[in-house]
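Reply to dn_fold:

You asked what the input looked like. This is it:
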Amino acid sequence: MATLSEIDPLPLYAQLAALLRQRIVRGEWKEGDRLPSHSELTREFAVARVTVRQAINILERDGIVKSRRGPGTFVAAQPGRRRRLPMHGTLMSMLTLMQANPPDMDRIEERVATPKPHPEDGTPREEPIR
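and this is what came back:
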C-alpha cells in the first residue's frame, strides 16, 4: 500500500493524484473502469474527503478521469495518450478563410539599434573596453 508523506513539500492532494495516476498507468484501472469511491480512498490513504476530491479534480482536469454524480469516477484515458483532434481541411478552404480575413504583413529590417541612456545612467564610454 502506497502512503502519503506529511514531510513531502508537495500537498497531500497532489501526492494522492500522482499515486492514482500511477495506478492507472500501471494498468490497475483501465479506460472505462470505475475508481474506488471517495469514502474508500479516504479510508485507504487516511486523508480527509476534501483531499480525495482535490486529487480527483486534478485528474479530471487533465482528462484522465471523468466523475459523474451517482455512478462515480471512471478512467477516461491513459495518461500520456493524447486523443487526436481531427482537422479536415483543403487548400481551397484555407484560401477562402484567408480571403475573408487576410493576414497582416509586417516588414522586418535588420539594423543595429543603440539604446538611448537616461541621464541617471551616466555618459557612455567613447572607446570600447579591451
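The longest strand covers residues 65-68.
Hope that clears it up.
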